[in-house]
From TrEMBL:
Its main location: membrane. It comes from Oikopleura dioica. Its EC number is 3.5.4.4. This is Adenosine deaminase. It holds the Pfam family A_deaminase. Keywords: Hydrolase, Metal-binding, Zinc.
Length: 386
């Protein structure tokens, strides 16, 4: 059935999620509801075998029902992927249903903000690579036959964000992600950011972490792009220290002028680097479930877990969900897991939300308003845990 907006009033907000929250690290490609994926495939199959095959693309694979989809896409509780590459393979089962489809991209974005509303999230930064969601021909990597450009993708996402804000009051902004290996798109992504300054607040580098060494001519395009972003006042974050070691974080700071670090868990292996992160008050975007399932820090190592050490040593950090499609998590679950496993106090989690708000890439006046709003609401809430 066609997707329809479903406005909710303030009194309908889910009673379980009373604490206002901020989320800085979540991927558009990884926020799709499983039910929506089923709907999108049903719609695609209705167009006929040829159109369906074209939509799914040469690197995608299909499935027959919700049970099979879940077995292919979701990392269930207690399971883990032994590498980031295995994790990235899971996206091929649904990305073809979204790429180049304005209706699908709009729906996924709108539903994401609807989910944020149910979790009492006040502000979120949603990241994605516009080139991966476009369907037009993009040299040198993509030979798609559609007409949707990266600019079109941003426009559709922006429309969904604006409509959802009108319905739910949740503010969302965009971070445009470079992807390791797609070096040639680094400067075009800066151009996209400058053309959409009202919705794009920063850039990122994601994908299979290669240590952020950037020795080759193509790899150095990322350095050029991030330097240009700094000159233009575009904020910068970088995935680093998730699959790579501490040197990955060092190089992200040195070569990319990163203001925030996505994940960063392997920093605990370098006490000098960890002290530097603390001294410079560099914000670390932590994703607990993601870290345990694909980051190399499994459930049996809770006492040694880097996120526990971040909280214990007062690193400027916050919690995010990363990819709810794959992990079937939400921000509320991340807080509860952090409290259960690490005995992190509610006050610490409140502090982490304020950290996230202060580290957000919003303009200064909007950031100040967000922080004040959170502080005012926290002062009125009197129960003990999330």
């Amino acid at each position: 059935m066609p997707f329809q907006r479903n406005s909710l009033k303030e009194e309908d907000r889910c009673k379980l999620y009373k604490w206002p929250k901020v989320e800085l690290h979540v991927h558009l490609e990884g926020v799709v509801r499983l039910e929506t994926i089923v709907d999108l495939q049903r719609e695609a199959r209705a167009k006929g075998p040829e159109d369906f095959a074209k939509m799914m693309g040469p690197f995608s694979e299909s499935w027959e029902n919700m049970s099979e989809l879940r077995s292919l896409v979701v990392i269930e509780e207690g399971d883990k992927d032994q590498s980031l590459l295995l994790f990235l393979e899971r996206f091929k089962f649904f990305m073809g249903l979204i790429q180049g489809r304005k209706d699908a991209i709009y729906r996924v974005t709108y539903e994401f903000i609807e989910d944020l509303y149910q979790q009492r999230v006040e502000y979120a930064e949603l990241r994605f690579c516009p080139m991966l969601l476009a369907s037009c021909k993009l040299e040198p990597h993509f030979k798609s036959s559609g007409s949707m450009t990266p600019d079109d993708v941003i426009v559709v996402v922006k429309q969904a964000i604006n409509d959802a804000y009108e319905d739910y009051g949740v503010k969302c902004r965009l971070i445009l992600a470079n992807v390791v290996g797609l070096w040639e798109y680094a400067l075009p992504i800066i151009d996209l950011a400058t053309r959409h300054p009202d919705i794009v607040v920063g850039i990122d580098v994601a994908g299979y972490e290669n240590g952020h060494i950037y020795k080759t001519k193509k790899e150095k395009l990322f350095i050029t792009a991030f330097n240009k972003a700094k000159e233009l006042g575009i904020h910068r974050t970088a995935h680093a220290g998730e699959a790579g070691g501490p040197s990955s974080v060092k190089n992200a700071l040195l070569y990319l002028n990163a203001e925030r670090i996505g994940h960063g868990y392997h920093m605990i292996e370098d006490p000098v680097l960890l002290d530097y992160i603390k001294d410079k008050n560099i914000h670390v975007e932590c994703c607990l479930t993601s870290c345990c399932k694909i980051g190399g820090f499994w459930n049996e190592k809770w006492d040694e877990h880097p996120i526990k050490k971040f909280f214990d040593s007062d690193v400027n950090c916050s919690l995010s969900t990363d990819d709810p499609t794959i992990f079937q998590n939400n921000l509320q679950m991340e807080y509860q897991k952090c409290q259960k496993r690490f005995k992190v106090s509610t006050n610490k989690l409140i502090e982490s939300n304020l950290n996230a708000a202060k580290a957000s890439f919003l303009p200064d006046d909007e950031k100040e308003n967000l922080v004040k709003s959170l502080e005012k609401q926290y002062a009125l809430i009197s129960f003990d845990s999330f």
